[in-house]
Amino acid sequence: MITTLNAIAPIFLIILIGYFLYRSAIIGEQVWSAIEHLCFYLLFPFLIVRTLSRANLGSVPVVDFTLVIVVAILGMSIALIFAYSLLRKQYPASGPSFTSVFQGATRFHGFVALAIIGPLYGDDGVTLTAIALAIMVPLLNTISVIVLSVYGHGASSIEPTNILKQIIKNPLIIACVAGLILNRTGIPDIAFNAIEIIGNGGLGLALLAVGAGMRPGQAARDKLLIFVGVFIRLIGMPAIVIFMAWIVGLEGLPRTIAIIAGAVPTAASSYVMARKMGGNAELMSNIVTFQIIASFITLPFFIYLSDNLTRYL
To answer: Do 207 and 18 touch, CB atoms closer than 8 A?
Structure first.
C-alpha cells in the first residue's frame, strides 16, 4: 500500500505544480499549447515505442489476458454510449462533455501502472503491463478518436472516411504499431537510448499541462459529471475486469495486472486529446485530477483484493 501511495503522490504533485505555474502566469497560454502538441505528437509516442520495443511478450497467457481486457473495455464503451444515447435528447449540447466522461471511464494511465507494478511484481509484472499497453493503447485510442469525432465539437461535419483517417494518423496508434514491429525485428542500442531519452520527458510535461488546464470553477459546475467519471473508472472498470477474469478463468499474476490496469486513473494524454479533437478539455482535466486524488484510496484496495482474490472466488 505504501508503494502505491508513493507512486501516485509525485504524479499529483506535478499536476499541482502545473496548476500553480499557470496561475502565476510564469508560462503563457501559447507555451502550454505548444507543450500539449509536443506531448501528443512526439513524447508520448516515443515513450510507447520504448516500452513495447523490448518487452518480453512470449511468456504469458496472451489469449486469456487479451480477452479479459478487450471485453472489459468494449463492454464499458458500449454501456456508456447506450446510456448517453438515452440522455442525448435531453442534453443535445453535451456531446463534448460526454467524450470527456467516456475517456475518463475507459482509458488507463499505463505509466502509473508501470510505476506501481514494477516495484511490486518485478520484471514479470512489467512484461504483462507492456502487453496490456500493446492491447489497450491502440484499442482505446481508436475508440476515443471515433467517440471524439462523433460527439466532439464540429462532429456534424465528420464523415466515416475522416474518422478512419484520424485513426490511421493518430500518433499513439502509430507508436504502438512501431513498438510491436521493433519488438520483433530488434532495435539498436543507440536508437533505443535516443528514444528512451526523448520519451522519458513525456509524462512529466503532460501532467504539468493537465495541472495548467485545471479550472476550479468548472469543477464546481460539473461536479456530477466528475463524480460519474471518477466512480465509473475507479470502481466500475476494475469490477468488470474481475468479473471477466472469473468468467475466463484468468488467475495469478496476469489477473492481478489486468485488475490494476483497470483500476489506475485515466491517461494524462486524455486531456491532450480532448484539447486537440474537440472534447471538453476543462472537464477532462478535472476528471483526471480527481481520479488521481480518489485513487489514493481505491488503488490500494484493488491491489489488495487482486492479490487475495482466490480467497473470495
So the answer is: yes
For residues 64 and 77, give the distance between their C-alpha atoms in angstroms, rounded to a whole number. Answer: 20
**In terms of Cα–Cα distance, which of 269, 295, 235, 226 is closest to 8?**
295
pLDDT tens per residue across span 33-75: 788 788 888 888 888 888 788 877 776 688 899 999 999 999 9
> What does pTM read for this prediction?
0.78
Percent of the chain with pLDDT over 90: 24
Helices 2-24, 202-212: axis angle to 10 degrees equals 60
Domain segments of the chain as ranges: 2-311
Q: Which three cell numbers stand for residue 62?
A: 496472451
First to last CA, the chain: 22
CA atoms within 13 A on the CB side of 42: 11
Query: Looking at beta carbons, which pairs linking 64-68 to residues 24 or more positions away fall under 8 Å?
Result: 64/248, 64/249, 64/250, 64/254, 65/128, 65/131, 65/132, 65/135, 65/250, 65/254, 65/258, 66/131, 66/135, 67/244, 67/248, 68/241, 68/244, 68/245, 68/248, 68/250, 68/255, 68/258
Q: Which amino acid is at 194?
A: A
Q: Which CATH architecture has domain 2-311?
A: Up-down Bundle (1.20)
pLDDT tens-digit series, residues 130-141: 788 878 888 888
Q: What are phi and psi of 187, to 5 degrees?
A: -140, 130
Phi-psi region of 186 (alpha: psi -120 to 50; beta: other; left: phi over 0): left
